[in-house]
Amino acid sequence: DAKTTQPNSMESNEEEPVHLPCNHSTISGTDYIHWYRQLPSQGPEYVIHGLTSNVNNRMASLAIAEDRKSSTLILHRATLRDAAVYYCIPYNAGGTSYGKLTFGQGTILTVHP
Amino acid sequence: DVKVTQSSRYLVKRTGEKVFLECVQDMDHENMFWYRQDPGLGLRLIYFSYDVKMKEKGDIPEGYSVSREKKERFSLILESASTNQTSMYLCASSPPWVMNTEAFFGQGTRLTVV
Fold it and tell me: Residue B5: helix, strand or coil by DSSP?
């Protein structure tokens, strides 16, 4: 499994953009990059995923480096509800992975009013 | 809305008891997973199932077993609960991996073994 490195914690102010980095230098060519977040006292929830191209959805944007060794989750305007632990997860879309998710320590995002 | 429902939010059991944690999903998903989450250790996969009656060990299966008799239901069994199994348990479901789509998690069961 590819290893990931994320900052332990980050802080932001409400209404400001947040860039959450993830290093995944050992990612394989068939691994997608999935992001999940876990709000306090809840189970994780899916945020976004991508392979090579940048991706946007209603929750966030995902910018993937050209060499695929890193990616950045972008929250365009942080709200208090975005305070959570964010996980970057290489997702093996082949073989016998069966869609298993391997969670690292993630980044604790604090949003200040 | 997609729902993964875990039978209990909080549970207190005695050492040596047999404990059943139940998980039900309503999206007709093939895959189901059990994780535990501990401070400093993150989420770790215990067992998963990719079809009815099929099961595979995850990273920390010792002390646990699972049962999947129906597609929508995945049970985690602690044969003889021990204090080191005090943890938050999270169930998840997802379509087959080939769809490369999201997994859905339940709210979690906080189990305390005394």
Answer: strand
CB B61 within 8 A of CB B46: yes
With beta carbons under 8 A apart, name residues in chain B contacting A93: 97-98, 100
Question: Closest-CA residue in chain A for B58?
Answer: A100
CA angle in degrees (0–180, nearest 5) for A67-A98-A48 = 50
Predicted confidence (pLDDT) at residue A90 exceeds the cutoff of 80? yes
Strand, coil or helix: what is B17?
coil
A71 contacts A2 by C-beta, under 8 angstroms: no
* B1 in contact with A, Cβ within 8 Å: no
Amino acid (1-letter code) at residue B5: T
Which residue from A minimizes the CA distance to B5? A43
**What pLDDT score does B98 carry?**
64
Tokens 């480096």 map to which residue?
A: A65
Number of helices (H), then strands (E), in chain B = 0, 11
- Mean pLDDT across the stretch A17-31? 91
**Chain A residues with CB-CB distance to B105 below 8 A:** 43-45
CA–CA–CA angle A87, A68, B98 (5° rounding): 70
Quick one: pLDDT at residue B37? 97
Checking DSSP bridges between strand B109-113 and strand B10-13, what pairing results, if any?
parallel
